[in-house]
Structure formats: C-alpha cells, structure tokens
Amino acid sequence: MEISITPSSAAVSDERLAEILANPGFGLHFTDHMFTVEWTPDSGWHGARIEPYGPLTLDPATAVLHYAQETFEGMKAYRHDDGSIWSFRPEENAQRMVRSSHRLALPVLEVDDFIQAVDALVAVDKRWVPDPAGEKSLYLRPFMFASEKFLGVRPSQHVTFMVIASPAGAYFKGGLKPVTLWLTEEYTRAGRGGMGAAKTGGNYASSLVAQQEAIGHGCDQVVFLDGQEGRYVEELGGMNMYYVFDDGHIVTPETGTILEGITRSSIIELAGKLGHQVEERKFSIDEWREGVTSGRITEIFACGTAAVVTPVGELRSREGTVPAPASTDFTTRVRQALVDIQYGRAEDTFGWMHQIV
C-alpha cells in the first residue's frame, strides 16, 4: 500500500506523555495518530493514510451499527532494551483476521498489508511505546467494520479498516495472582457453525451478561461450556484454558467453536520445547472437578494477549466450589519464558518476533 501521512498538529507534549507512560493503565490513552484504509467493490482497498487521532463521523444508517458486521484484533508492540521495537507473531493476527473476515462476509485485507498498516502506525507513534520495565507495551487494535450507509441486510459495499494504539501497563499490579472463576450454566457463547472462532464484537457482547453474573458471585472471570451438551469447557470471557496433569502432560480445549488464540498456540509450541506433551481435545467440567479432587490436575492457567498467562484459582458454581490446584510452577515458568522472548531477554528460537523500528 501507498500510505500518506498527515502529522498531528496537536501531539501530546513530551511532559504529558511521560506522565501517561508512567502509569498507562489499559485502554485509557491513545496515541497521536491512527491508520485508515477503505474498501469498495470497484476500487478495492484505497486511500491508505495515517492522520491525527480523532472521532469518526458516521451516518445513523451506517451498517455496522445495525448488523454488527465487524472484526478486530489485539496485539502488542514491545520496546527492547536497545530501543528497538518489535511485535509478536503479527502474521498470525493478520491470518486470523482473514478467517474472521470470511466468516463475517467482509473483504480480505492481505497479510502483508495488515502488517504494513500496523508497522506504519507504530513507526509514526514510536515515542508512545513504553520502556520495557514493568512489562509495559503498546497495545494495538486493528479493526474492520461495515461503513456503508444502508439498512438492507447484506454484506456492506463500503468497508473501513483502521488501526489505533494505546499504551498498556502490566496486567497484574502487585504480582501474579490466581483468578477465581464462575461456571455459567445458563449462558453459552458459541455453537457449531456460529461465530465463536471469529474475533468479532458480537462474541464479546454475548459474554458480558455472564461476566456480570460471575462478578455478582465474587469471581474474576466466567467459564463457558459448549452449547450442544453443556458438558465441555470452552473458554473464559477473553482467555483460553490449560490444564496441567501430574504426569506432565497438558490439555487445552480444542478449537472450532472457540477463538484460536495466538498466545494459546504459542504455549503449545513452547510447552513442547519444555518437554510437555499438549493435547487439544474436549475437556469436560466433570474431568476438571475430578482431576483437582484426586490431585491428578496439578495446575490450571488461562492465557491471552492482555494477561499473557494467569494462574486459575478456585472454580465456583451452583453445585459448589472446586478448590484451586496446589501448584503454579509450570504456569510461572511458561509465562516467564514467553515474556522473555517478547521483550528480547531470551533468544527467539521460534522466529516469532517481528522488528518494526
């Protein structure tokens, strides 16, 4: 793509930026610029540009507001100690957006164009990438939406792809703490032939009432079961699950109706290198309960872009409480190994890191 760049005339001052990067939180502050490119059937992708960050003007009849035809991604840019800036497996995010676009009847943005768009925005706003101390990073949000002014129910004939960025602090302040989970038996997130494997806002919208239910029971996150039998663990509101057994093998619920997490797939490879066999299969809630009670399941953890890896504590439900497993040894080890690669503290033998600046 040919990308035009219009520098912001109201960029955040260096002094204010230093204040933001000292305590960025998550999703609270946004960089000076944003990337935009548009698509129509006649012109394809066109008008690629980086311009000052600002509000969008949308007609009330804009299709995405009525039919939720949109996809998004979540990824990070990391500053290494030498000042260089890297992303983690961006081609995987790009390929997942291709799959999501097919499912949502959106046009495909090619992998190389996706990576170019993300790299271009990070290069322009590189001063917003925090120093690596404290596991800070620049969170990147590429997204695509139906931007046609039309109320008919059909795929949009005008689509917009954008990238915005927001500095992010460490997900866990004060150290790694196990999350408490609530098992929802009333709500399901996805079913066979649905949109569970697509990264689209509707999947997250459908999780919110169950997440409210979890918080109401004093829990941090919600666990969803499959929509067909209500027996098999699928995922949390925004993370994938892993179960470590006493013989060293690890189980993670199979994909198909759940999101193919990039952190998830990376852990499968990393665990193999650390000498652990990983099974991707159906995993029942009864196996969870029995495995923890018998001691066969020694650790449980969840993973995702924002949290990376987090240990899982007790599971609560209307049937009672399953206690937290006894250990977090492997959880801590695999998390550290992954973070060390992302921040350039360990050799990237997998070829996962992509240099931007």
From TrEMBL:
Domain of life: Bacteria
GO-annotated biological processes: isoleucine biosynthetic process; L-leucine biosynthetic process; L-valine biosynthetic process
InterPro entries: Aminotrans_IV, Aminotrans_IV_CS, Aminotransferase-like, B_amino_transII, BCAT-like_C, BCAT-like_N, BCAT_family
Cofactor(s) needed: pyridoxal 5'-phosphate
EC assignment: 2.6.1.42
Top EC group: transferase
UniProt cross-references to SUPFAM superfamilies, sorted A to Z: D-aminoacid aminotransferase-like PLP-dependent enzymes (SSF56752)
Pathway assignment: Amino-acid biosynthesis; L-isoleucine biosynthesis; L-isoleucine from 2-oxobutanoate: step 4/4; Amino-acid biosynthesis; L-leucine biosynthesis; L-leucine from 3-methyl-2-oxobutanoate: step 4/4; Amino-acid biosynthesis; L-valine biosynthesis; L-valine from pyruvate: step 4/4
Alphabetical UniProt keywords: Amino-acid biosynthesis, Aminotransferase, Branched-chain amino acid biosynthesis, Pyridoxal phosphate, Transferase
Residues bearing PTM N6-(pyridoxal phosphate)lysine: K199
Catalytic activity: L-valine + 2-oxoglutarate = 3-methyl-2-oxobutanoate + L-glutamate; L-isoleucine + 2-oxoglutarate = (S)-3-methyl-2-oxopentanoate + L-glutamate; L-leucine + 2-oxoglutarate = 4-methyl-2-oxopentanoate + L-glutamate
Pfam families assigned to the protein according to its UniProt record, in alphabetical order: Aminotran_4
Classification via Gene3D superfamilies: 3.30.470.10, D-amino Acid Aminotransferase, subunit A, domain 2
Molecular function, one GO term: branched-chain-amino-acid transaminase activity
Annotated family: Belongs to the class-IV pyridoxal-phosphate-dependent aminotransferase family.
Record-given protein name: Branched-chain-amino-acid aminotransferase
Native source species: Nocardioides agri
